[in-house]
């Protein structure tokens, strides 16, 4: 931690001089964007990387230049797929030193997963919840889980009474916010449950990056988001909003997973390669809302998630 990193730091800068030879890493969502870059840089520093993706043909093309990468099929919108992928990994019995739950969807039209869950909550949270918990035995002592969240968690807390919008009018970004808050809370409770055996978990906001994640957004919505971010003024002030490149966007994932002290990031929310402050305001810029790292809220989400998926971990 002798070096200081920030908004503009890239994955290569964060991992400069880091040797990951002998380390095994799992990254979900390696068919485009941040997942591909994350897998690339970790493999470049010697890690043996397993990449998970829904569309294996797309993932093969996107990761063709990454040496030694292994691919597994994982459709997070299907609990059967999540269970099957996890079971294959457990059967292989090879432990992981780092798992980065990177895959996700954003601002989708209202829909349901094959299991009947609202698309964003079902894909971003419940799919990873089942997949990660089913491979929990493969987390080696000293390993970490990094959940990709977002500043979008500030759009909404979770709704444990109506997670599927059965009674609540659907709004794309409220649903996204709920799912991203759930990603943080999952990390908080996973960290509490596993830290005694030397396994830590954290959540990260990668920043504003123009990737395939925004494919469901209209140009009008995209401009509204950009305006909101640009005009937002966090407490204490902050530089003007700037888009990140993909290598800049993936840097916080690898920083939190490899470089930062485990005790510093465990159970926390990170952004721009540092642990974020808890900020209780309506800005979309800077910090984490208190409800997203609330330990009791995390326990309640865990219990509700087990109820929804019909499986106890």
Write up what this structure looks like.
The chain has an eight-stranded mixed β-sheet with strand order 3-2-1-4-5-6-7-8, with helices on both faces. The model has no long low-confidence stretch (mean pLDDT about 90). It is about 40% helix and about 15% strand. The radius of gyration is 18 Å and the shape is globular. The longest helix has 23 residues. The chain is of the alpha/beta class.
How are the SSEs placed, and which strands pair?
Blueprint: H1 11-14, E1 24-28, H2 33-44, E2 48-53, H3 56-62, E3 70-73, H4 79-92, E4 96-101, H5 119-134, E5 139-148, H6 172-194, E6 200-205, H7 219-231, H8 246-249, H9 251-259, H10 262-265, E7 269-271, E8 274-275, H11 295-309
Parallel strand pairs: 1-2, 1-4, 2-3, 4-5, 5-6, 6-7
Antiparallel strand pairs: 7-8
Helix pairs in contact: 4-5, 5-6, 6-11
């Amino acid at each position: 931690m002798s070096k200081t990193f920030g908004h503009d730091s890239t994955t290569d800068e964060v991992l400069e001089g880091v040797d990951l030879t002998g380390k095994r890493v799992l990254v979900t969502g390696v068919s485009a964007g941040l997942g591909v870059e994350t897998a690339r840089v970790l493999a470049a520093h010697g890690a043996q990387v397993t990449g998970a993706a829904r569309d294996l043909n797309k993932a093969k093309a996107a990761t063709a230049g990454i040496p030694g990468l292994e691919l597994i099929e994982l459709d997070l919108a299907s609990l059967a797929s999540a269970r099957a992928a996890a079971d294959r990994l457990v059967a292989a019995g090879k432990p992981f030193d780092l798992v980065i739950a990177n895959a996700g969807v954003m601002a989708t039209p209202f829909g349901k997963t094959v299991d009947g869950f609202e698309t964003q909550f079902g894909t971003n949270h419940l799919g990873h919840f089942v997949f990660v918990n089913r491979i929990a035995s493969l987390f080696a002592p000293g390993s970490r889980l990094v959940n990709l969240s977002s500043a979008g968690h500030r759009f909404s807390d979770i709704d444990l009474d109506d997670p599927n919008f059965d009674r609540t009018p659907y709004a794309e970004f409220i649903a996204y916010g709920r799912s991203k808050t759930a990603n943080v809370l999952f990390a908080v409770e996973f960290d509490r449950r596993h830290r005694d055996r030397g396994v830590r978990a954290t959540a990260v906001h990668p920043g504003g990056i123009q990737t395939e994640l925004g494919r469901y957004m209209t140009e009008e919505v995209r401009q509204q988001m950009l305006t909101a971010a640009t005009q937002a003024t966090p407490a204490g002030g902050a530089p003007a909003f700037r888009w990140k490149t993909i290598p800049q966007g993936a840097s916080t994932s690898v920083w939190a997973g490899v470089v930062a002290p485990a005790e510093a990031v465990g159970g926390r929310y990170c952004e721009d390669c540092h642990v974020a402050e808890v900020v209780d305001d309506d800005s979309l810029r800077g910090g984490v809302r208190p409800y997203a790292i609330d330990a009791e809220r995390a326990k309640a989400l865990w219990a509700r998630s087990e109820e929804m998926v019909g499986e106890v971990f």
